[in-house]
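Suppose you are handed a protein chain with no further information: no name, no annotation, nothing but its sequence. What can you learn? This example shows the usual starting point.
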Amino acid sequence: MRTAALLTAGTILLLAVGCGDEDFANDPRPPVSISLTGVINNRGVTISPDKVGAGPIELTISNQTKAAHTITLEGEPPQGNRVRERVGPVNPLDTATIQKTLRPGSYEVRAGSAAATPREIGLARLTVGRQRPDSNDRVLLP
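A reasonable first move is to predict its three-dimensional structure. Written in structure tokens, the prediction is:
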């Protein structure tokens, strides 16, 4: 009986030691990533939606032209830390994805081509507003 009581007390003591607060920070999780879609056609680049809150984004762009294009996401938020992400070249009828965490500010999405073109393809503007709420209360997230 004494041995069982000592083993139980020892087990409880060991379990209590491993439950310190310093091991598990209770920091808020980042906002859920927002999926944006875009299209490159002969008239220009379009992004939808073009206004989002600050946080992680995943921008998937489809090239619907007859030439390969390099896609550039660029901007400089008021807080600094210039953003410049580039993917490509993206072949005709193919897609590319840019994943980035953006701060509030204004950004441009451009499609460039290695071949000389008679006119430049128009760019898209992406406006990023205030920070989106954290995802602490969201379930089934990776």
